[in-house]
Amino acid sequence: MFTGLVESTGSIVALTPSAGATRITIAAPTLANRLNTGDSIAVNGVCLTALDIETSAFPPRFSADLAAETIARTTLSNLATGSIVNLELPTPAGSPLGGHVVQGHVDGTANLIALDEITPGAPDTDWRLRMRIPEALTRYVVPQGSITIEGISLTVAALSGQDVEIAIIPHTYASTSLHTLLPGSPLNIEVDVLAKYAERQLQTPTKHLLTEQYLLANGY
Question: In CATH, what class is 108-203?
C-alpha cells in the first residue's frame, strides 16, 4: 500500500520493448539503495516490481517489467528517455497515513487541460490543475475527495462533468513531476478505492448484507 506522498523523483533511463514484457529502467539516486529484488515501488502511481537493481551505477537505478495490462492502462510506455517520474516506496504497517489509501492500481488516464499559476510571477505561488477524466471514473470523484494523479495524493477542488480541478501547493509543484507537464499530457489516475468498495456494496443483493433480518435469521 502507498499513500500518494511522493518520496523523490527519478528519470527514465530506457524503455526496451521485447516479444514479452517491456523493460523500463529508472534512475533513482535516493531510493535504489533501499530496494531489494522483488520489492514494490510506485512509479507515477503505478505499482511495479523492482528488478536488476544497480546501486553502483551512476546514477543508481532499477528496472521493472511492464505487462501488457500495464501498458494498456497507464502512460508508462509513452515516457521518453529523461522524463521525470514520481517515486514512492510502500508504507510500512503502523506508519502515519499522510495522504490516503493508494494501491498503485491505475484506473485510467486523464488529459491535462491546464496548470496555471494563481499569482503569476510570485516565487511561492500555488497552482490550479485542470484535467479531463474518463466518464466512467466520474462517479468515484467528489469535491473535497481524494484522487491520485501521477502517484500524488491530491484533493479535488471542483468537478464539472468530466473536468476536475485540483489546487496544487508550491511544494508539490516543485518536488514532483508536475512542473514538467504540458497541456495535453496524459496523466495516470487512481480514484479512491473506498468509493469503489462502497459502490460494490450497494450493488450487492440485500440478502448478502449484514441487515438486522439477516443476523436474526442466522442466530446472531
Answer: mainly beta
Grid cell digits, residue 125: 505561488
| DSSP string over 77-143 | GGPPTT-EEEEEPPPPTTS---S--B-S---EEEEEEEEEESSTT-TT--EEEEEE--GGGGGG--T
Contact at 8 Å (CB) between 50 and 37?
Answer: yes
Residue type at 131 in one-letter notation:
M
Distant-in-sequence, close-in-space partners of 94: CB < 8 Å, separation ≥ 6: none
Residues 152 and 166: their CA atoms lie apart, in Å, by 11
Torsion-angle region of 45 (φ positive above 0: left; ψ -120 to 50: alpha; else: beta): left
CA gap 92, 89 in Å, rounded: 9
CATH 2.40.30.20 fits 8-88, yes or no: yes
From CA 61, how far away is CA 76, in angstroms rounded?
16
Q: How far apart are CA 127 and CA 203, in angstroms?
A: 38
* Average of per-residue pLDDT across 153-175: 97
Cis peptide leading into 143, omega within 30 of 0? no
CA atoms in the 13 A half-sphere facing the CB of 57: 16
Where in the sequence of the chain do the CATH 2.40.30.20 domains occur?
A: 8-88, 108-203
Q: Mean pLDDT across the stretch 78-95?
A: 93
**Model confidence over 177-212: pLDDT tens digits?**
999 999 999 999 999 998 888 888 787 665 556 667
